[in-house]
Amino acid sequence: MSGEKNNKYVQKDLDCFKAELSEKDFQAFSAFIYSEYGIKMPPVKRIMLQGRLLKRIRELNMQSYSEYKDYFFSKEGQQKELFNFLNVITTNKTDFFREPVHFDFLMNQVLPEHINNSTGKSTFKVWSAGCSSGEEPYTISIVLNNFKQMHPNFAFSIMGSDISHKVLNVAAKGVYQESKIQIIPLDMKKRYFLKSKDRTFPSVRVKPELQNNIVLKYVNLMDNSYDVQEKFEVIFCRNVLIYFDRQTQEKVINKLCHHLQPGGYFFIGHSESLSGMNVPLTHIKPTIFRKEL
Ligand SMILES: C[S@@+](CC[C@H](N)C(=O)[O-])C[C@H]1O[C@@H](n2cnc3c(N)ncnc32)[C@H](O)[C@@H]1O
Fold first, then answer.
1. Phi and psi for 69 in degrees, rounded to 5?
2. Phi and psi torsions of 233, nearest 5°
3. Could you tell me the sign of the dihedral formed by the alpha carbons of 162, 259, 154, 265, in that order?
4. Which of 14, 45, 186, 228 falls 20 to 30 Å from 158 in CA-CA distance?
């Protein structure tokens, strides 16, 4: 559905609802979202937030935004509602093989380098930070599985993390509309996906070999430190930093770099930039960085 159509539906819903998110209530939510999750919520986002919260207000049978706000900030609300709140406030757009230059670089540069430099015993670890519904970690898994076919001793693991449990659950199920994998070449589709028999809802399921090496977990990039023990050879943090301000971006990247091996690679989204930031990364190519040795 186009953004414009979507807005029309939201507007229609709002007309029936006859209530709006006041400036004051918006500010309370916006300050909370920014301080806890780093996501910028300037005043221009008020109507967007209003539309997203309406769904929860309806589900909870509430009468107004202020009733929802009082509930959300109560002790009970903070225990019971946070989960649903995060599911509606996050923007989770993603795709298989999104920004394909990163996957070419992984296949043609990072992996051959790893094989040439390693003793053959170490596991190649990748973190997809802000992995949304799983298309990014599964794409990484396709690339690593393809590489493993040529190098049978190659061992790898992938961690995907996000703050939305809804998208983490989609990732864990690994079931997608068939149209989402259109971009994947036919031989890889056959190798890594199973078609559903139900043709009324054409869907595919990722095969176990794509899922076996993936761990999914909740990690809030705003936390002071992350409950992650590993050091990774590669970190993907793409189209996540864009929601943060520069100061937050710099802090998050420095924390992520604690979990990156010296010489490890760091990928960001094409509309993001690290220029002028005090981070231990060297620019290799647009959106591709390497941790100093
Ligand atoms: C637009 S998606 C990007 C998905 C994928 N990386 C890609 O490029 O296709 C951004 C994801 O970042 C997650 N996110 C936002 N703030 C976060 C935070 N503070 N900690 C962890 N994940 C966060 C959102 O829930 C969302 O799923």
1. -60, -45
2. -80, -30
3. positive
4. 186
Q: Which amino acid is at 189?
A: K
pLDDT in tens, 207-247: 999 999 999 999 999 999 999 999 999 999 999 999 999 99
Find the mean pLDDT for residues 168-181.
98
Catalytic one among 46, 52, 56, 98? 52
Give burial (CB, 10 Å; 0-12/13-18/19+) of 6.
exposed
Q: Where are the alpha helices (DSSP H) in 62-134?
A: 65-72, 75-80, 82-89, 101-105, 111-117
- Residues in contact with ligand 1 by the CB-under-6-Å rule are 37-39, 90-94, 98, 130-132, 136, 162-164, 167, 220-222, 238-240, 243, 269
Domain residue limits at 260: 101-291
Ligand 1 geometric centre to CA of 111 (Å): 25
The CA R_g of the chain, rounded to the nearest whole Å, is: 21
Do 279 and 249 share a domain, yes or no? yes
Residue 124 β-bridge partners: 156
Looking at the fold, whether 7 and 135 belong to one and the same domain comes out as no
Where is 165: in which H helix or E strand? helix 165-173
Index of the ligand 1 atom closest to the CA of residue 39: 16
| CATH number of residue 128's parent domain | 3.40.50.150
Tell me how far apart the alpha carbons of residues 147 and 135 are, in angstroms, rounded to a whole number.
18
Do 47 and 78 have their domain in common? Answer: yes
Q: What was the pLDDT predicted at 199?
A: 82
Contact 132, 162 (CB under 8 A): yes
Query: For residue range 99-133, what is the model confidence (pLDDT) as tens digits?
Result: 999 999 999 999 999 999 877 678 999 999 999 99
Residue 16 in domain: yes
